[in-house]
Design goal:
The protein is α/β, with parallel strands linked by helices. It has helices spanning 49-58, 78-94, 128-141, 174-183, 194-202, and strands at 3-5, 18-23, 37-43, 63-66, 70-71, 97-99, 101-103, 122-124, 147-152, 155-160, 167-171, 187-188, 206-209, 212-215, 218-219. It has 2 domains: 3-141, no CATH class; 147-229, no CATH class. The chain has a 4-stranded mixed β-sheet with strand order 1-13-14-12.
């Protein structure tokens, strides 16, 4: 279930940054109202995803649109893809509506690894029937906090339900905590100790593109379920 993509040397036009269109209301019908618009923004590769999402939310942004399809096919700068995926997770955690399209490339089944993220508006590069065969289960099985982590004093707890079964993992080893901190911003695979990397990859908690990786669970902001269910 880990996201592993092959990087190609030719990058697309999105290398300049992730283009965002922003609104101050969740409702799609209000986006045509000038007073609801929060303008546009360009998020550079390597931007802090948590800080960026927090800034947008504090500014009143409740709905965003990604200007270009998210290229999981490997045709964009890997750094920008990592930033985009991390930001998507942060926005999902905050309950911000995200209108985004995705190109799954040669790995259409990779959607199950990112099914904890807000479902896309469209899947490009597939036939209508193939795209709908992914969109329908993604939308019908999505719920907030499907794969999350919470930070405690000296530990991290992960709760992952992407395969419909609850998997719990507590991380308290300093080497692992340091790796998660790096992966939460996106980092080179070589920055993570081999033993730690293999363990996190085995738990399907990291996404990979080229030589870069990111932490896939997003931080829990609120529990949408009663305490006995989490």
């Amino acid at each position: 279930m880990s996201t592993e993509l092959r990087s190609k040397p030719r990058f697309g036009p999105a290398d300049a940054g992730l283009q965002l269109h922003q609104w101050r209301h969740h409702d799609l019908e209000t986006t045509s109202m000038p007073a609801v618009s929060a303008g546009s923004d360009s998020i550079p590769a390597g931007a802090d995803p948590a800080a960026t999402a927090a800034r947008l939310f504090a500014d009143g942004v409740r709905r965003v649109e990604f200007g270009e399809p998210v290229e999981l096919s490997g045709r964009v700068d890997p750094r920008l893809l990592v930033t985009t995926m991390l930001l998507l997770g942060e926005l999902t955690a905050l309950g911000v509506v995200v209108d985004w399209d995705v190109d799954l490339g040669e790995l259409p089944d990779v959607w199950t690894s990112i099914s904890h993220l807000s479902p896309p508006r469209r899947i490009v590069g597939l036939t209508d029937e193939e795209a709908q065969g992914i969109l329908d289960p993604w939308r019908s099985t999505f719920y907030l906090d499907k794969c999350v982590y919470r930070q405690g004093p000296g530990f991290i707890q992960v709760r992952d339900r992407r395969d419909a079964t609850l998997h719990r993992l507590t991380i308290d080893d300093p080497l692992y905590l340091d790796a998660v901190a790096k992966l939460s911003r996106g980092c080179a695979i070589e920055e993570v100790p081999t033993e730690v990397w293999e363990a996190l990859l085995g738990e399907q908690l990291v996404g990979v593109v080229g030589g870069l990786a990111w932490w896939m669970p997003y931080r829990v902001r609120r529990w949408p379920w009663p305490s006995f269910a989490v």
